[in-house]
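lol so apparently i was supposed to do this last week
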Amino acid sequence: MQPFSIVIHGGAGTILKEDMTPDLEKAYQQALDEALEAGYGVLEQGGCAVNAVKAAIVVLEDNLLFNAGRGSVFTKKGVQEMDAAIMDGKNREAGAVAAVRNVRNPIELAAEVMHNSNHVFLSGKGANDFAIKQGIKLEPDEFFFSQFRYDQWKAMRDSDNYSLDHTHQGLEELMKDKKFGTVGCAACDMEGNIAAGTSTGGMTNKKYGRIGDSPILGAGTYAHNTTCAISCTGHGEPFIKAVAAYDVAAHMEYKGMSLHDAMHEVVHTKLIELNGEGGMIGVDAKGNVAMMFNSAGMYRAMKNSSGEKFIGIYRD
Ligand code: ASP
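anyway here it is w/ aspartic acid bound
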């Protein structure tokens, strides 16, 4: 048995202590703790990294606090379109879905794509048809409704200012409203296999079938036992252009960097060059964990078999 570990995020952005109430802060901490323990429990019982990642993400998707699954943001048309991906670092098997609707846990659909389709990436109606065929749990629109998300959308639905653009102003506005609530997990199991997964509702008021980095392998999600397993969160477009998750692996593989140094380079140099605000979490196959962000805060948590545990929100 080797050291095992798990790390999760619930999104990055302008998350400031002065904007938070004690109750909300506690609710986030509890939600992160619950997801962390769900995933860690799988690892502790000898379960594989992929199952730990799924278990943690399902808990986050079911919680209205996060922009994934049930708490997904509204698109320009006033519906939820969700993206998710999962990757197994042992064999680089992977599954991803984009713009799926009414799927309770998109990470489970992504895993179903990985295990039971001959494909890697399914989108839109086709992905929904696959979900129905495989018996994946669907829910009516009302299940995904929350007043908080609705009000966020209502405030911006008639304006193009809030559709994703690349101006600094637009980004600041999006960050201020904490729109980056994607969830993700990376885990290293007792056998030294690693995996990563990411799930999101994307950006509030997104249109034209916009897809962010989260379900794109190499951009928002990546795993390979020889290097690392990574899940990203932030302004998706720069993360796609930076091939951010894979870039951490590339720095480790080709430059011999540690997980920590490679992630630091990508988050604090490579992404900054592209105005890519946000962060990422990751593990390597020795159980090392990293969590970094260039935004004001990132909901995050980690636990390992050496007894370390951390839950954080702000820049400490
Ligand atoms: N990266 C996600 C996207 O661009 C958003 C997020 O991380 O919250 O869709």
